[in-house]
Backbone:
């Protein structure tokens, strides 16, 4: 009930704020830098929508609507170009927009790249380099995929396999369709509290490899990455090697490997080192922040907001967009206005 009230209040605040947007976006003093964050780009009827988090998905139609609308007010640019122009003292556009995608989903190639290419809009995709070309994506998505398959096919062997690998969780054998999403997210929460990321990852990859035959790949492969890089329109940054959250639970040696090796892998595969780094989940210890600054030109966090010309190249703010926060022109304008004013995020 509290959540319903909160989301209704938020929607109402965005609707009010939307009326201010054209004024703010056209008249507020620049230069400002707006960095948009997306994750997966999926058609409305895609099966992954059943188990993927709402905040992770946008349709290609909504993505195109966002870019057309923002393009009325902003100049699209790569982030390293904006930083280079700022450092050189070149006059920057009053409002610049940088488009980013986190994680390196295969659907970015299939559904986002055609939109970006058609509109000639530059974008950066942050890759978890060790997962590029791997059969399985990140463990929360793999878990959703496995549980939905088990419940839809009444596959008890799959549930038993999960229980054998991760015995501290109670694995429901059957769940009514309407409750399935909620149960998946509840199990994800329990797993995060009880086990280490890398242990859940290994266990679920093991079960998925044994139980699921030739599932379509969820993440990009290097051939797709290269095809997009060759256009010069799409650049690639690092999102660690294994999408590890860079928090105090991670050993410094593992943390080093996640930050340094991912840059080396991108440099080796694409011929140029990545400019930017994106912190998974926005987590960053002081050690991680220092290490990233040594290796990368810029970094982005999950902190919501718009950057001014005074912003440092590391720890830049972004605005997360998805079907839930940007399904209509008014919803998007409201979201941007709140980010401008630093409220309601
Ligand atoms: Zn991520």
Residues:
């Amino acid at each position: 009930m509290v959540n319903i009230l909160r989301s209704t209040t938020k929607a109402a605040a965005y609707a009010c704020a939307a009326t201010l947007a054209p004024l703010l976006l056209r008249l507020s003093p620049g230069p400002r830098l707006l960095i948009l964050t997306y994750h997966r780009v999926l058609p409305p009827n895609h099966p992954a929508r059943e188990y993927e988090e709402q905040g992770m998905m946008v349709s290609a139609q909504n993505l195109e609507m966002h870019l057309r609308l923002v393009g009325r007010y902003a100049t699209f640019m790569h982030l390293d170009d904006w930083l280079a122009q700022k450092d050189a003292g070149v006059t920057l556009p009053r409002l610049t927009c940088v488009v980013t995608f986190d994680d390196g989903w295969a659907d970015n190639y299939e559904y986002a790249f055609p939109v970006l290419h058609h509109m000639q809009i530059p974008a950066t995709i942050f890759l978890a380099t060790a997962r590029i070309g791997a059969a399985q994506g990140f463990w929360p998505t793999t878990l959703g995929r496995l549980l939905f398959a088990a419940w839809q096919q009444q596959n008890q062997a799959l549930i038993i396999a999960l229980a054998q690998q991760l015995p501290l969780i109670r694995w429901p054998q059957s769940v009514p369709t309407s409750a399935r999403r909620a149960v998946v997210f509840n199990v994800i929460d329990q797993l995060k509290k009880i086990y280490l990321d890398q242990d859940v990852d290994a266990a679920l990859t093991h079960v998925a490899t044994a139980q699921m035959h030739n599932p379509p790949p969820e993440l990009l492969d290097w051939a797709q990455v290269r095809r997009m890089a060759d256009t010069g329109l799409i650049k690639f940054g690092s999102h660690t090697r294994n999408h590890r959250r860079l928090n105090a639970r991670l050993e410094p040696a593992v943390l080093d490997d996640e930050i340094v090796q991912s840059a080396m892998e991108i440099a080796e595969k694409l011929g140029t080192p990545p400019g930017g780094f994106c912190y998974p989940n926005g987590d960053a210890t002081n050690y991680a922040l220092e290490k990233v600054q040594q290796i990368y030109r810029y970094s982005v966090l999950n902190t919501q907001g718009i950057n001014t010309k005074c912003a440092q190249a590391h720890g830049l703010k972004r605005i997360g967009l998805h079907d839930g926060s940007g399904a209509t022109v008014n919803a998007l304008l409201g979201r941007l206005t709140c980010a401008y004013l630093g409220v309601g995020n």
